[in-house]
Amino acid sequence: MAAYKKRDVPAGIYGLICAETNQRWVGYSPDLDAMPNRLWFTLRLGSHRAAALQAAYNQHGQDAIAIEVLELFEDDCQPEGAALKERLSFWRDKMDALPA
Q1: Which CB contacts under 8 angstroms, 24+ apart, belong to 39-45?
Q2: Which of 4, 12, 77, 97 could lock 26 by a disulfide, CB 3.0 to 4.6 Å apart?
C-alpha cells in the first residue's frame, strides 16, 4: 500500500475519439494511469457527465473509442486554475473537441 501511494503519478491532458463518428473529446486527469478505468466504469454505468460521449459509447461501444495522451505534465510543472483551463482550451480548439 505504501509503495502504491509513493508511485509517480502522471498527470496530463487526454483525448478521446470515436472511430464511428469522428467525434472528439478532451479532458484532464491528475492520474493518467487510472483514467481509463474510471472512464470506462462511468460509461458502463451510464453516468458519464459528457452526454455526447455517453451517447457515442452507448451506440458504438468501448471498442469504437480510442484514448490518447495529448500532453503529459512534469511533476514540478503542472498547470492549475486558469493555466490548466488554457491548456484544455488549446487542445479542444486544436482537435475541434468537446469537454470529456
Answers
A1: 39/67, 39/100
A2: 97
Separation of alpha carbons 35 and 16, rounded Å: 12
C-alpha 82/C-alpha 77 separation (Å) is 14
* Phi, psi (deg, nearest 5) at residue 55: -65, -40
Cell numbers of 77, please?
510543472
Residue with cell 478532451: 26
Q: Which residues of the chain have pLDDT under 70?
A: 1-7
What angle, rounded to 10 degrees, do the helices at 35-45 and 51-60 form? 80
The type of residue at 73 is F
Instruction: Indicate the pTM of the whole model.
Output: 0.89
Q: What is the dihedral of CA 4, 6, 8, 13, to 10 degrees?
A: 80
- 3-class DSSP assignment, residue 12: strand
| DSSP 8-state secondary structure symbol assigned to residue 25 | E
